[in-house]
Amino acid sequence: MNNRPPTRIAAAVLGTALALSAFAPAHADAAEITSIEQIQGTGDSSPMLGQDATVRGVVTGAYAEGGLRGFYVQSAGSGVDITSQASSAIFVYAPDEASAVQVGDHVQITGQVSEFYGLTQLKADNVAVLDEPAQSVKPLALTLPSSDADRERFEGSSGIRV
Question: Which residues does 71 contact at the CB level (< 8 Å), separation at least 6?
Answer without folding.
Answer: 59, 61, 62, 63, 91, 92, 94, 98, 101
